[in-house]
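Support request, please re-run this one:
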Amino acid sequence: MIINVMDLVQLKAYARQYGVALAAVWAASFLSIVIAPASVLGSLLALSTPIVVGWFLVRFRNGALDGHISFRRGFAFSCYTFFYASLLFAAVQFVYLRFFDQGAFMAMLGESLKTMEEVYRHEGAAAMQAIGQMKQTISMVGQLSPLQLTFVIMMDNLFIGALLSLPIALACRRKAFIPTNEHEQQEQQEHAE
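Re-run finished. Output below.
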């Protein structure tokens, strides 16, 4: 298993470009959720992440690799895309939380918890215990500095990105056609002309 340095440089260059686009999708999702929590736009943007990365992988496969990509290269591309997007999104998120938030993020979490508490109030003791645990978690999150919170979310993005890269690479892989006999080679040459 030999690593071709130029292939890796190419893969990382495309992953950086698509990482910027994915970070923009995440930033739009985050801002939509914080500014308008009742809107489904932010949730839809966040849930579209695997589809967006799959689309990026298909564009990379078809544009740079003539329609052929192995699972391993697809996995590496997806992981690098999530890596670069996570770094850039962490920077955007830190700037927002540090300079512009003024408690809006924690207020949104508190309002979401109140809504959940009203819905689950009639579900019994187990549901109320879960709500109590969520309150503790939100109070702990509220004690984190913007840098600490950004770091935690970045690590979550990296971990979830690595997990999502597996099915994305599996779904988008495409093997190159290798002719096995003279008839197939002849057909391929005729088709190429």
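Residues 5-100+147-175 form one domain. The helical segments are 5-35, 41-47, 49-64, 71-100, 104-120, 125-142, 146-172, 182-192.
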